[in-house]
Design goal:
Elements lengths: L7 E7 L10 E7 L8 E4 L3 E4 L5 E3 L1 E4 L11 E9 L2 E9 L2 E4 L7 E3 L9 E3 L8 E8 L4 E10 L1 E6 L10 H10 L3 E2 L2 H9 L8 E2 L4 E6 L14 E7 L8 E7 L3 E6 L7 H10 L3 E2 L2 H9 L9 E2 L5 E5 L12 E4 L11 E7 L21
Length: 369
């Protein structure tokens, strides 16, 4: 007969490396008596937050009756919840055996900070790591689970390709976001962007297959002036047959975006070559948004980006810079032969600093807009 679990004080360490100490807080969670069995799992309420490239701990602790069971027979399993009926294996441990799966290989380990610690460390966090994780602890007769949400600091950008608006089905929207250094945004991410003032009149796909759009300033051309503000939804749409724009999400850059100074304006092919000669590549749309939001890149000069569009980032709005709100201005998709623009280049962090004439980014500090 297993004994009932007693009152526990569980410390969930929600910390990143020392460089991210502003988020390195501890939470104490009180768990009342549980009469359901010998294994009780507790994860921290809410969510843990990091950024792409960071290291994060998904907190999970468990209690079991030592007198009733051999701790070496406890199995710990982490899975990622893709949807209510779909899971992806992340990490399994039993006794001294450890195994990571898929893209988590080489990036995950148990924290093992004392008895009952099943917390999972994820290093070099990717955009695809965003989401909900389940911590399951099992012995021969009992099991219990807890849920942890991993969130990323970053920025949403609405996107449509050169073909025009409402030309992407769900799968094409996924590919378009990936091609521009992003992933399809979640509803929570879009809602947060709306709370920060995002207003966009065109509907776009989200990662759950729904189609929505954020409205902060109701107007007749966006569903009538007398309708309330909020994230408006078309519901879940047919992923193959229906076509909309996309809402993409991206996070911190492992590198720098800069405007390349040249002695003359460039065509798109010339822009490709100019960045290459400077030891870089033409910046993707998501990289330009991340540089604007996170590195505070502010440049009132239009430049080519990777998808053939022309854009420029404005942190501090001013006269003749395209409006009164911060944002990434979009001049559309001009003919690639036009020699009318500069270029935004991107260089990975491991490849050194931009050459003279490029703009250096600031420290990690999300800009609320």
């Amino acid at each position: 007969m297993f004994h009932a679990a007693t009152l526990l004080l569980l410390i969930a360490v929600l910390s990143s490396p020392p460089a991210l100490s502003e988020r390195g807080r501890k939470k104490v969670v009180q768990v009342s008596e549980d009469e359901s069995g010998a294994v009780v799992v507790q994860t921290a309420p809410g969510k843990v937050v990091t950024h792409r490239g960071g290291t994060i701990t998904l907190p999970c602790r468990y209690h079991y009756d030592v007198s009733a069971h051999d701790p070496a027979e406890i199995r710990l399993k982490w899975t990622k919840v893709m949807d209510p009926m779909s899971f992806v294996d992340v990490f399994v441990a039993m006794g001294k055996e450890r195994r990571a799966f898929g893209s988590y290989r080489g990036r995950t380990a148990l924290q093992e900070d004392g008895a009952g610690d099943a917390s999972l460390i994820i290093r070099n966090v990717t955009l695809q790591d965003y989401g909900r994780y389940e911590c399951e602890v099992t012995n021969q007769l009992e099991d219990d689970t807890g849920m942890v949400k991993l969130d990323l600091e970053g920025v949403i950008f609405p996107y449509h390709p050169r073909l025009g608006r409402y030309t992407l089905n769900y799968h094409e929207a996924q590919e378009a976001c990936l091609a521009q250094d992003g992933i399809l945004a979640s509803y929570d991410q879009l809602h947060k962007a709306w709370l920060e003032g995002m207003d966009w009149c065109n509907a776009g796909w989200l990662e759950d297959g729904s189609v929505q759009y954020p409205i902060s300033r109701p107007r007749d051309e966006c569903g009538r002036k007398d309708t309330p503000v909020g994230v408006r939804t078309y519901g879940y749409r047919h992923k193959d047959d229906e076509r909309y724009d996309a809402f993409c999400f991206t996070s911190n850059l492992n590198g720098k975006v800069y405007f390349l100074k040249t002695y003359r304006k460039l065509s798109y092919p010339e822009a490709l070559q100019a960045c290459k000669k400077n030891g870089a590549k033409v910046a993707k749309v998501g990289q330009l948004y991340a540089a604007w939001k996170i590195q505070l890149l502010d440049r009132c000069e239009a430049g080519w980006v990777e998808d053939g569009s022309v854009r420029y980032p404005i942190v501090n709005p001013r006269a003749r810079c395209g409006g009164q709100e911060p944002g990434v201005r979009n001049l559309g998709f001009p003919d690639k032969k036009y020699k009318l623009f500069g270029v935004y280049c991107y260089r990975k962090g491991s490849e050194g600093s931009p050459k003279k004439g490029s703009k250096e980014p600031g420290k990690w500090r999300p800009l609320q807009v």
